[in-house]
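Why run this: before we spend reagent on co-expression, it is cheaper to look at a predicted model of the complex and decide which construct boundaries make sense. The entries below are exactly what would go into the expression plan.
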Amino acid sequence: MAETADKEGSSGKRRTGSVVTWIIAGVVLFAFYESIVLLLIGMAPTGVAMLFDRSPSRNQTRTVGYLNFAGCLPWVIDYWLVGGNFARIFEIFVDPMALFVMYSSAALGWLLFFAIRPIVGSYLAVSAEMKEKQIGRVQRKMEEEWGPEIRKDAEERTAEIADGDAVATAPIAPEAPVPENSETP
Amino acid sequence: MLVGGRYEVNPQQPIPELDCGPATAYAATEVRGTARNVFALMSDPQFPLRHDIVPTIRRIDHNNLVRVLDWGVIDWPHDGRRRPAVIVERPGGPKVMSTLADQIEPFREEPLTRRVIQPFAQVLTELNYQGLVHRNIQPDNMFFDGNDRERALVMLGEGVSVPVGLVQNAAYAPIECCLAEPSGRGEGDASHDLYAFGVTLAALLIGQSPLFGLSDEEIAQRKIMQGSYTALVGSHRLPLPLLEVLKGLLNDDAAERWTLENLEMWIGGRRLSPKQQILPAKSSRPLELGGGTYVTARDVAAGLGKHWDAALTVVEDGTLDNWLRRSLSDESRTEAVSLARTEADSSDPEKADVVLAKVCIALDPQGPIRMRNFSAGLDGIGPLLAARFTDPDALEMFAKIIAANLPAYWMELCLKPKPDYYRHASSFERVRSYIDTPLMGHGVERALYDLNPTTPCRSPLLENDFVVNLDQLLPSLEHIAVSNPGILGNVIDTHIAAFVASRVKVTLTSEFRALHNPEDAFDAALSATRVLSVVQDSNPMEPVPALCGYLEKLLETGVDRYHNRTRRTEVLENLHVAATSGSFARLMAAIDNYEDRTNDEYEYRVSVGLFEETIMQLRQVAYEREHRAAYTYELGGQVASLVSGVAATVAILAIILMKLF
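The model came back. Tokens follow.
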């Protein structure tokens, strides 16, 4: 009963929070609707990235989004400092330089996202190899000190533990599913 | 070839005229160069010599007793083995009779009294005072101390080099001893020596050994039927004053036989009239058995013992009962035999032997304990076991006697028990507790050594040596370890185990149990080392590096009990150092250190845990390799977003600064 009441309580709070967020968003949209429009058009590439990004951590969206936002920021500040109406927003968008900077910064984000992954893949391969070698050295040293039976006994114990508690000893796997377009180094 | 570091034996110079039964005489010299004339009696290693009495008997310094000076075990070139040697002071003349077959000029009354009875009574008194019995008194073990047979001192020979009863003619032994096998006649007491002295006097008076040439059985038969005095002296005419002595000493009832006090009183001039010996009741009709006829209860007991299988029928079908009731008319014997039959379960064929043995005891309570061809007095059972240890039949009979507790039964029926009997009875009780235990250090081998403190160890390893004391065991094994280590095996065999168990005061049952373990060679070797360590600690003795070195090789497998390779190397080094020192205690400490083994086991368990962690780490690495794409995607995305975030932050800050200022 208490648990049910707690669950109902937390669900009610979330619902209340969500309502508040939407109210604030409505107020902000009403107060800064020109800036919002500017950002919506300038950060269109981020929206595209969001559409393709299926991972829970949304790293692709964030990579593109951060730089895309930085690319939009000078015109947003200009608009805030100079002021104006929708005509001013229209002027910004007809300026090829503005769109170029905004979309180029987003493109830089895409570039980072695709360029860094192979580097990280190589790093992981090398790191795993080094780790294997180091563990091998430790094992060899222990076998020299305690004889080959230490491996046998340890493997038997590992098997016993695995039989008794398979879940607890399973290697930690990333939760992220491999996307279809991901590259394997 | 030094005995006691003092007497050198010359194996090239035998002195056959001084042989004593199986003990052969050889010339010997005292290395310190004194004028003392000595010779060595090389005992037969098959028989235990009475070395335990040497320290006491050597203290007796009497002109009429050949002095035993020392004993020892020496290498004997004639048979390539070690043999015991008894060093004896050489008399100045020949034996009184070179053999019992000899005929000599009879001693007259006065010289016999002066030269033999008086001094020998002193010798016997001295022996009795020291708690010793001689048990080898007969004319062929008496010497003249000079070549003048008329005037020279007469000396009594030694009684150390051969076991009791082995060489003494049955004529010189009381009836109960004649009925037993020679090796089973037992140590006896002063009354046995006095009887032998009486027969010896008779022999000297008549100039020949009485009843010589007859078998032991015939001698016993005559003594039973006629009484010893009549059987031995017969129709010979002897000096009247000496008849008194002979009748007193030759009384067949040990309780009525003259004592040393009686003898001394007679020497002192007091004339005693020995009690008239009552001959046993004779039956009106003899009992026929195995082709012979028997008329007295004692006689019948001897006959039953001789014709065992026929006797079983006679006892079973009631012939014996009828004879006892109708012919012998001895109520007490009849009742004792009936009781013996009812006490034992005669319906069991396995028990038939026991029934008959009890019937024999009931018929002749003073006689030996008989079981088929095993016949020995209470104190002769152990020596007879030693003499016939290689005979499986004898071992079986001995086991039956012990299992049926016949010694206790014999004591129950004994008419006049002596204090020594109770000591023997407790020994047999102890033997009974372990004789059927199938374990090293127990069984019939243990009985052999417990009942015969002077018997040498019969281990095949020591067959060329003569090991009677614990302090001789390790030097002997050390000698083998040097010369022929291949035969040592696990060092401790059934005989050595029983010998040690019998001689040490500590209990070694767990060690003997481990010695039985064929699956764990190290455990057996460790137990052997522990047993030898107890032996080494029981007596101060020289270190035995060769034997320790041999055991070191057996114990080396024990390093497998340690997991740590460095520790193994250290243990092997310590083991080698301990072996070099020749100490079994150090050998054990090196290989069987409890603290070291506990620490090693603990550290090994910890290390297994650590190794297990490395295995899990390798599995994690393998798993990551298998799922490299997913990891790369996730981690690459994180790094890209991080880099992007940092770059965007820097750019945002720069833009804000530029726009505002």
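The mean pLDDT of chain A is 81. The helical segments of chain A are 2-31, 33-42, 44-52, 59-82, 86-94, 96-146, 149-164, 166-169. Bring this page to Monday's planning discussion.
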